[in-house]
Amino acid sequence: MRTWKFGDNIDTDAIIPGRYLVYNDPRVLSSHAFEGTRNDFAKGVSPGDVIIAGRNFGCGSSREHAPLALAGAGVRFIVAKSFARIFYRNAVNVGMLPLVCPDTGSIPDGEECTVDLEKRRIVCQGRSYAIEPVPDFLLRIADAGGLIAYARNLSGVETCTGSQR
Amino acid sequence: MGATIVEKIFSSRCGHSVRAGEVVMAPVDGAMIHDITGPLAIRNFFEMGGTNVFDPDKIILLFDHQIPADSIDAAENHVFMRKFARDQGIHNYDIREGICHQVVLEKGRAAPGDIIVGADSHTCMYGSVGAFATGIGSTDMGFVLKFGALYFRVPETIRTEVSGAFPWRVGAKDLILSIAKDIGADGATYQAIEFTGETFSSMSMNGRMTCCNMAIEMGAKTGIVPPDDITYEYMQKRRQSHTVSIASDPDACYADRREYGVTDLSPQVAVPHNVDLAVDVEKVAGTPVDQVFIGSCTNGRFEDLAEAAEVLGDKKFNESIRVIIIPASRDEYLKSLQAGLIERFVKAGALVEAPCCGPCMGGAFGLLAPGEVSLSTSNRNFRGRQGSAEASVYLCSPATAAASALYGEITDPREV
Lengths: 165, 416
Known about the structure:
Strand content of chain B: 15-25%
Shape of chain B: globular
Number of strands of chain A: 7
Number of domains of chain B: 2
Strand order of the largest sheet of chain B: 4-3-2-5-6
CATH architecture of chain A: Alpha-Beta Barrel
Number of helices of chain B: 15
Oligomer: heterodimer
Largest interface: A-B, 49 and 65 residues
Order of helices and strands of chain A: EHHHEHEHEEEEHH
Distance between the termini of chain B: 51 Å
CATH superfamily of the largest domain in chain B: Aconitase, domain 3
Structural class of chain B: alpha/beta
Number of strands of chain B: 18
């Protein structure tokens, strides 16, 4: 479980370039993750590895191919100072957990680390970094394994109008 | 305390008062899918146990990113979506009409007060008609296709008030690039940006679309212009009985208020590799370019092409560079054709392509080699956006793009 460290404003074109959007298979997408911007990632990443980033991770396109490319590589946790809105939702929806941590700047690249959700912290080289709580309804989706698994068990939804569909 | 226009839209659709910060499961009035994000959304819909979509008449389905199919994989995606449209009774615009966002507005599929979602980040463009519209991913879209509703966190609003009249050859694109620079690439994350003030009151629908389109480049959930007579005139031609009057209350609670003036605004250019890196054109004038692209959902309408043609005059584009011009839709193409713009562009040496996303998509065609430089009227200049990660993309208005295409280097349109 090593860390892969990135900077601020990592956009969805960097995570998965537009020319690969024709593919939908997470394994195929993961083989092109960060192609051109961090070429050692796709070959070097192992299941359980953790992405560490600065502000506004996942900005840009709504392409779900971006979180899928990371999920396909076996990444479950992305720890960043902040996330772009659509990417954040997409990551939860495909079963990953984006975690907000104000101190990602001090977390080193390429080091062993563990994410402790219960204690809300990430531990790396003996140092502990606090992570912010995840909203309950998002945790329920993530715990189900993503929105698909969550929605499969719903026969309808209660909208704010009160009507059952 | 009063409510913002966005709070009012959610309150109206929910039937009771909701406020910024609340999470609601709201019904949607329209859902758009295209050839890139659609196949995944449809698969997710089926995986969720979906059999019939919530309402075929509320789904907008078309192809615009990879058309005509540029690979066998793309062709297969199109076949898959065509079959879905047929099976579900959804009208399919297929490859005929143009870029999704332009088509949604043109066909009257978004109206003041609506809640619209699209599986594309620039869905926020429909705020130009006073709708609440936001981009979502394919799994969220699968959920919408099945249930006709989605979780929304009602966003806080940043109110921008813009005053003054644009100087010669300066316009909406220059304004929104300067606002993006001020607010920053993540300055409006999870918030709505409301565009108001005399500059917006007198701005055409074209300019409003350009500005709302780029709200996402500041991380915003949507950009929105309160509907007025200009909006209603646009809607009347497209959809009957839609004069919903909706605006923020004077005492609405805003996350922030910002004021801008355009009287002294210079043409803006966003330099690589972030949209919020706008500078006055003077600062980068003389930078050599290899390709100029005029088009996209941001700036591919008739008014944009007319702006470029006015700068072009009867001159020729510089032969040392490629100039690619793509109208945003079939309607905009026809208007440009009838006005003689297309003939002028072709005579000047441009490649005019059929309506589609083109080089902005970074996959279909018009890609850049390592070291090349593109000047583009589109919305993103991220590293690798238009091809090689070693290439550079600059963003600007149609006027600046046309002026630069004449000289093969970034050029101030006021100097031409």
